[in-house]
Amino acid sequence: MSSNSSIEILSARVIRSTGAWYEIIDSNQNQYSARLRGKFRQDSKEITNPIAVGDEVLFERNEDGTAQIIEILDRKNFLPRKATHGRRGHQILISNIDYALVVVSITQPQYKTGFIDRFLVSCEAYGIEPIIILNKWDLSEDIPTDEIIYHSNHYKRLGYKVFHTSILKPETLEPLVTLIANKVSVFIGPSGVGKTSLLNHIDPTLEEKTNEISGYSNKGKHTTTFAKLLPLPFGGYLADTPGIREFGLYNIEDWELSLYFPEMIEGRTHCKFSTCTHIHEPSCGVIELVDSGLIEPFRYLSYMNIIESLVDQ
Predict the structure, then answer these.
(1) Number of C-alpha atoms within 13 angstroms, CB side, residue 127?
(2) Which of 95-104, 151-160, 200-209 has the lowest mean pLDDT?
């Protein structure tokens, strides 16, 4: 499309953000370094980044081969997290995605169900299909796995897809590759869980940088500093993101949190109060399910911890 005979307006997808500059790719796989038009005004002051990786934009080409972004098209969805470093509002991690894949390792570093549950809540709240990846499964012979398998099976019963993966066992990656082909997906998880190594094995031509686990803290070292959306050889895109140790939720009220726990949906309809938080209120249908064992203790613990974090915001 064109606004007049001399200026051609093109469309593209943002595949990388490094601050003031953005890398964009058009439908012909041409890539440009782009900046945001100076007159652009952000719709919401609560968002810390005006353009997110995954955004679809309109742009003009400059004479020097760079581009100028003139419009951000409406997002079909986005995955936010609470802004870091004491800033107000929220940061958009990525937009316009089909799958959000939370990658955790069964050991080195040990996964935490609380992190997974926060991630699932955010996906439920913003209309994104989550996938759980339990990585480093080649280490399962060296550690007890009963609890890991128990958690895995429970998430499956709740309706979530769960993959057990290892880069040393290529056959474990095949179902994942089939799922994400021709889709836009994102890897999210703490540092050191193997996100970038998985990505390199899904597409060996990428040769993304990886790093080892810190022996001092047994936590991963950050190797990805900016989110990047990478074209895949079998179609679609896959994004790697900086390691996230905490997933701060944004714009969710304590009384609505149970809407994003599938096992609580039925119980909350029997609560005496419409704004019940399912912590201390009388005649609470959710608490009755917890007491009867129909809601797993580890999930209810995650729920209570999230409620506490929402109150402290």
Answers:
(1) 6
(2) 200-209
Q: Which CATH entry fits the domain spanning 9-74: 1.20.140.10, 3.10.450.50, 2.40.50.140, 3.30.1490.190?
A: 2.40.50.140
Element (H, E) at 72: strand 67-72
* Architecture in CATH for domain 254-311: Orthogonal Bundle (1.10)
> What count of Cα atoms within 13 Å lies in the side-chain half-sphere of residue 306?
32
Mean confidence (pLDDT) of the chain: 86
Q: Which residue from 29, 81, 23, 26 is spatially nearest to 51, judged by alpha carbons?
A: 23
pTM: 0.84
Q: Which two tokens stand for residue 85?
A: 């470093």
Preceding omega of 231 cis (within 30 degrees of 0): no
Buried b (16+ CB within 10 A) or exposed e, 51-87: bbbbbbbbbbbeeeeebbbbebeeeebbbbbbbeeee
Q: Which of 211, 216, 202 is nearest to 242 (CA)?
A: 211
Class for the domain spanning 79-240: alpha beta
Q: What is the pLDDT of residue 219?
A: 39
Q: For residues 270 and 285, is the Cβ–Cβ distance under 8 A? A: yes
- 3-class DSSP assignment, residue 123: helix
Task: Work out the pLDDT band at 83, boundaries 50, 70, 90.
Answer: low
* pLDDT, tens digit, 9 for 90 and up, residues 220-265: 333 434 578 888 999 999 987 776 656 667 788 999 999 999 999 9
pLDDT in tens, 150-178: 999 999 999 999 999 999 999 999 999 99
Tell me if domain 9-74 and domain 254-311 are identical in fold: no
For residues 214 and 100, give the distance between their C-alpha atoms in angstroms, rounded to a whole number. Answer: 26
**230 contacts 237 by C-beta, under 8 angstroms:** yes
Phi, psi of 231 (to 5 degrees): -65, 140
Q: What's the half-sphere exposure (Cβ side, CA atoms, 13 Å) at 32? A: 26
Rg (CA), the chain: 21
